[in-house]
Amino acid sequence: MGENKASEDTDRRIGRRALIVGGAAAAAGTAVLARDELARLWWRVPGVEKPREPGAVDFAGARWVAASEANWRRADRPDDYGVDMVIVHVTQGSFDSAVRAFQDPGHKASTHYIVGQDGRITQMIRELDVAYHAGNRDYNERSIGIEHEGFVDRPGDLTDEMYEASARLTARICARYDIPVDREHILGHVEVPGTDHTDPGPHWDWNRYLKLVRAARTAAPDTKALP
């Protein structure tokens, strides 16, 4: 009887020690997770901004021109909002007029990129951040917006240079965020729920565009967004 009692006491002490050690380990693990989460979110404290490299672009060859801060919202995508769409727009104006509009704080809208008829690309908002381009908050948070210079009723505005440059850009975006190259994930502004826009219009050649994106996607490295 005494031997059994001693054994029970020993087991109880071992069990209590295991519980303490296990609890301490769990607490330590929780503390590490909490520390990592705080390290990721510290910049959201009022007055603190996540470090960014001034003038950095997410697509090699793009020219950086900053949009007005009234036309986008600072974020930490894809950590806070997963990116799973590319939305195609047409400017209904010239390249330069689109740049000026997105620099205007009264415009209240901007895309991440503008592609010109000559194939030049300007980035105005970092992919990290949420651009006000789709007219739908959920779609804004989940997408990259690309404007294309021209008018929806002028098929001649949609040049070979524009299609090819835009396809390379979209391919890199799809590679970066593992976005499928299909019409469920690459869509026109007209397809966004609640929008009253018609772009990219009836002359936008989706079959041609997706073929170009797939070809470029095959050659595109799985790049990551810059700081």
Automatic annotation (TrEMBL):
It comes from the Bacteria. Keywords: Cell wall biogenesis/degradation, Hydrolase. Its EC number is 3.5.1.28. It catalyses: Hydrolyzes the link between N-acetylmuramoyl residues and L-amino acid residues in certain cell-wall glycopeptides. InterPro entries: Amidase/PGRP_sf (IPR036505), Amidase_domain (IPR002502), NAMLAA_amidase_2 (IPR051206). CDD domains: PGRP. One of its GO terms (biological process) is peptidoglycan turnover. Pfam families: Amidase_2. Residues 72-201 form the N-acetylmuramoyl-L-alanine amidase domain. The keyword Cell wall biogenesis/degradation applies. It is an enzyme of class 3 (hydrolase). GO terms for molecular function: N-acetylmuramoyl-L-alanine amidase activity. This is N-acetylmuramoyl-L-alanine amidase. It comes from Streptomyces pilosus.
